[in-house]
Amino acid sequence: xxATQLLKGVLDLAVLAVLREDDGYGYDILRRLRxxxxxxxxxxxxxxxxxxxxxxxxxxxxxxxxxxxxHRKYYSLNSAGRGQLESSSKTWRAFASSMNGxxxxxxxx
Amino acid sequence: xxxxxxxxxxDEAVGGQLEADPVRAAHEIAEYLAGVRAALxxxxxxxxxxLVEDLPEHLAEVRAEDTGSLVExxxxxxxxxxxxxxxxxxxxxxxxxxxxRRLPELDRIRRRIRPITGWLRQWTAETDVLIGRVVGxxxxxxxxxxxxxxxxLLRGYAIGMIVLAVFVSDSGSLLPSAGGSTLIGLAxxxxxxxxxxxxxxxxxxxxxxxxxxxxxxxxxxxxxIVGSVVDASDDSADLHYSPTDGYGGLVDIYPYGRDGQPLNxxxxxxxxxxxxxxxNRWGRCYSYAPDxxxxxxxxxxxxxxxxxxxxxxxxxxSPSPAPSGSVxPAPSGSxxxxxxxxxxxxxxxxxxxxxxxxxxxxxxxxPAPERSASPAPGPVGAPPPSAQPGAG
Lengths: 109, 392
Known about the structure:
The structure holds 2 protein chains of 2 kinds. By secondary structure, chain A is α+β, with helices and mostly antiparallel strands. In chain A, 66% of the residues lie in helices and 13% in strands.
């Protein structure tokens, strides 16, 4: 099964979850996603997701200047984003438990 | 989806070389950026700028990691652009090529107000969640979305009523009616409501220009509905003067002509040509010829001709303001349809029948308040409220 297909549906949730811990800039978020095991996540899809979440009003941004390199745009969760994270988490957990139940049931027979 | 790791052999072969050549790195970044932008050229400038805003920074970081060329790491610019577009929820390709570019001025303004629009967007999103908490949904808009079909019905109803008002113009109630028939009215308005619901359920599939047009039309219609409701409530307030300014107990009005004759069938109009509906049409006179009772023509309760008795020393035709002291001034408590109380309810001359109507102002004509008229010679029936003795 192709994990990238699964990722498409839950990347929003993954990005929101990463940002719950701490604010981050694009590449930082990407690294944290990969570090948590989502190896297949693509650079462009993370940036696109960030852009869409920002457009939807779930994220705030601020720019942090850096001496060695380009200025970095940091993303942070706002209250709308936290609300979105909460409701999406519920959806995901319900979905995952249904799937697990289904698989366990098949295994038991 | 592009995968993170390039071929290891290439990494080793060119790694040190790339590091040693920052100019070449900058050139590679610019080239990649240009490739992505070109692949997004069909988007409006604002959307494209938004999409690639973080890209230079990202490319610089990826390039600085020194694990291969950008194309090896991220895939071809066009593929990167496609991923970006997909993840950002934009359509893969749109057929209208960057029409916003025709107006560079507009783009500059857009770019300048972007912080404001961003703030607004965030504010509305937060408010949305807040309202949602109140109404028990994740977002307030979730709740509004449930109300959509109701809005579709209301919209169709409003359009139908506007059409009726334009072509038939006899609606004044909330129920549609045409030529006095509610059935025909419903037959006109009903299809509009059905059509509106149909359009509403299709509108989600509109794209581009039509979507914009439909949104503008919707906003205009909503304003129109609100406006007409406000207007209607204003109108009704205009037409029903509440006689509280000094005439709280006013029940009827008894107009008198210059010659001291009581006038019948007088209609009163305000400065805008609206008929005044003061007094209580149904109160005192309900038993008095209710069928013949005109609509707010004063006096509402005309004095019965033979009940009018000449009384007092007032000479005929002479508008002397001094009535006899023995005359009771106001019969306000007494029944007007019965015989006038002794000494009251008189006219100056018994020979003139009060039934002769001095013409009231024609409907819609200029109000004829007869301000300069001399006061009635005697306190007959109800005294004219503004009359001052000695003004004649």
